TrEMBL record:
PANTHER family (UniProt xref): NUCLEAR RECEPTOR CO-REPRESSOR RELATED NCOR (PTHR13992), SMRTER, ISOFORM G (PTHR13992:SF39)
Domain SANT: 91-142
An individual GO BP term: regulation of transcription by RNA polymerase II
PROSITE patterns given in the database record: MYB_LIKE, SANT
UniProt-annotated stretches for the region Disordered: 73-93
Chain ranges of the Myb-like domain: 95-138
Similarity field: Belongs to the N-CoR nuclear receptor corepressors family.
Protein name per the record: REST corepressor 3
Ranges of biased composition (kind: Gly residues): 80-92
Recorded GO CC terms: chromatin; nucleoplasm; protein-containing complex
Length: 211
């Protein structure tokens, strides 16, 4: 009987110790989990505070001075960036009116292919828009020929912009006249929608032959 009783007592003692240890372990784990939950909650609050602080500092007015100068102007409503309408092209696309094209041609005759000079002559045009003007209106306004005349007049060597357009520069016609310049401009305003300047040039040529 004594050995059996002793074994029962030892078994109960071992069971109590094991249960106590298990409870302590569970409490420790629960405490760790609670601590981790508390830390996670604190971190989330800090993140939210930082987000509010950063969003309060970032605004269009605060980053405007970081933009490049030629892109700092706001594009008017109704103009799609990157569109091909009007010949502006690229960043800040806008249409070129007949008056602006006349001013641009006058600037090109005096300064050649100078983006900055053209942008300074037109208040609502940026350097990027003027750069795209030389690309989009290159053939329509025969800009390489005007620039070639400027480079020849100033004793400059022909640029690659001029050399690459020799296939449609007509050197036999001589310097550009007023009638030819009006023929290159878009058919709008005083020229009318269906007017073609070609008959005017034919009459001028016939008149010179009769003389």
């Amino acid at each position: 009987m004594q050995p059996l009783l002793l074994s029962i007592i030892m078994y109960r003692a071992f069971t109590c110790i094991l249960l106590s240890w298990w409870r302590c372990l569970a409490m420790w784990r629960e405490g760790q989990i609670r601590q981790l939950d508390k830390e996670i909650k604190n971190l989330k609050e800090r993140i939210q505070t930082c987000k509010q602080s950063v969003s309060g500092k970032v605004s269009p007015d605060n980053v405007e001075h970081l933009r490049p100068q030629e892109y700092s102007r706001k594009m008017p409503l109704g103009e799609a960036p990157g569109g091909a309408g009007g010949g502006g092209g690229g960043s800040g696309t806008c249409k070129w009116s007949e008056e602006e094209i006349e001013i641009a041609l006058d600037v090109v005759r005096k300064n050649g292919k100078n983006y900055e000079a053209l942008a300074n002559s037109l208040d609502d045009k940026t350097v990027a828009q003027c750069r795209n003007f030389f690309t989009n209106y290159k053939r329509k306004l025969n800009l390489p020929r005007i620039i070639a005349e400027y480079e020849t007049r100033t004793g400059r060597k022909h640029s690659r912009y001029v050399r690459g357009a020799t296939d449609y520069i007509n050197d036999d016609q001589g310097p550009l006249g007023d009638d030819q310049e009006e023929g290159m401009l878009p058919r709008m305003g005083r020229m009318g929608g269906g007017h073609d300047p070609q008959p005017k040039r034919i009459r001028l040529m016939c008149g010179s032959m009769m003389d």
